[in-house]
Write a structure and sequence with these properties.
With about 375 residues, the chain is α/β, with parallel strands linked by helices. It has 14 helices and 13 strands. About 45% of the residues lie in helices and about 15% in strands. It binds pyridoxal-5'-phosphate. Keywords: Aminotransferase, Pyridoxal phosphate, Transferase.
């Protein structure tokens, strides 16, 4: 068996969602909405399934979807993307795998920032690359620029970042990308930015992509996911955008990973991306309401909620909430004793984990959030009392 695969367990999200199914607990763990997804997209997918081809679409994605991605990023982020700069993938996860497989050789180094999405490090290890880990510092979770600089060696090929960031909700600023550009240019490094949460941004904050920074335009890869933009996480329609030579190189890996993605879903996502900006604004607002409800409820119950600008998640500081057990124990007990699934931050670390924070997903119906809040309030009483 492959050594990197042999040492892997089951991802925390599958474990916790499995526990929720088994115990009937309310699942504020894995990030997915309870709703079916926007009617516009469901109708478009049903129509496409019936009326369009169900055979292999082009390897880089339907031309109509690539055009819609370019349209969406022009409208939302002021980016200009040519058709040959876009590759459609089966979810952002496949785009991440294709980048890592295409850009790294055994022994090459890749810098990751913890806490991190749990697919990153295993993918790098699969190709024999060496993960170099630096950590964000609570409570503001800003990029540790000095630590990143110190982690760069002559073997560094890629810096992989995530903005907006899961699980903290922090975002990389244009100034920080400018600083990263200096590091990348001086050391011939490719910057891969996982931007799956780019649309789920609140409180008037604006998302910045490294592709908007001139010095990074030819050496950055932007990764997106329709699953997050449209709240259809199971669809697994994603993409990457990069200058043509980079996009072509990564497409070579993509062709032997999945080759393509179900055409009906590509058609539907294309239609969705062409919806007017007001539609997208209202869609984000529908999430903002759940966010405010969970934040207020957690605060009222005595939990110390940290500030965040994006994603479907909030996180609390356990000691700040008067709770003096590690995050893993909190999450384990919150399922069994309170009937609420949460995700411990330590699951987002590959080494030296922070154990003070727990993540909650707020994209759930009001009644479900209210019930979860009532249970979490009682649960906190038992922990601090
Ligand atoms: C940071 C990050 N990257 C990638 C993904 C996976 O995206 P997809 O479902 O499109 O593969 C997720 C899903 O939660 C995520 O949070």
């Amino acid at each position: 068996m492959n050594r990197s695969i042999a040492k892997l367990g089951t991802t925390i999200f599958e474990v916790m969602s499995g526990l929720a199914r088994e115990t009937g607990a309310i699942n504020l763990g894995q990030g997915f909405p309870d709703a079916q997804g926007p009617a516009e997209l469901l109708d478009a997918a049903a129509r496409a399934l019936r009326d369009k081809s169900n055979q292999y679409p082009p390897m880089r994605g339907l031309p109509e979807l690539r055009a819609a991605i370019a349209h969406y990023y022009a409208a939302q982020q002021g980016l200009t993307l040519a058709d040959e700069e876009i590759v459609v993938t089966s979810g952002a996860t496949e785009a991440l795998a294709a980048c890592i497989f295409a850009l790294l050789n055994p022994g090459d180094e890749i810098i990751f920032v913890q806490p991190l999405y749990d697919a990153y490090v295993p993918l790098a290890e699969l190709v024999g690359a060496v993960p170099k880990l630096v950590s964000l510092e609570p409570p503001h979770w800003r990029l540790p620029m000095a630590a990143i600089r110190a982690a760069v060696t002559s073997k560094t090929r890629v810096i992989l970042l995530n903005s907006p960031h899961n699980p903290t909700g922090s975002m990389i600023s244009a100034t920080e990308f400018e600083m990263l550009a200096e590091i990348c240019v001086a050391n011939d490094i490719v910057l891969v930015c996982d931007e799956v949460w780019e649309a789920m941004v609140f409180d008037g904050t604006r998302h910045v992509s490294p592709l908007a920074i001139a010095a990074l335009r030819d050496r950055a890869v932007k990764i997106g996911s329709a699953g997050k933009i449209f709240s259809v996480t199971g669809w697994k329609v994603g993409w990457l955008c990069a200058a043509p030579p980079l996009a072509s190189m990564i497409a070579r890996a993509h062709q032997f990973l999945t080759f393509t993605t179900p055409p009906a879903l590509q058609w539907a996502v294309a239609e969705g991306l062409m919806l007017p900006p007001e539609w997208h604004k209202a869609h984000v607002q529908s999430h903002a309401d759940g966010r405010a409800r969970l934040e207020q409820g957690l605060r009222a119950a005595g939990y110390a909620v940290l500030s965040s600008s994006a994603t479907w998640f909030l996180h609390v500081d356990l000691p700040g909430s008067g709770i003096h057990i590690p995050d893993g124990q909190f999450s384990d007990r919150s399922v069994r004793e309170a009937g609420v699934v949460t995700i411990p931050f330590s699951a987002f670390y590959a080494q030296d984990p922070e154990t003070r924070f727990v993540r909650f997903c707020f994209t759930k119906p009001e009644a479900m959030l209210d019930e979860a809040l009532a249970r979490l309030a009682r649960f906190r009483e038992t922990l601090v009392g």
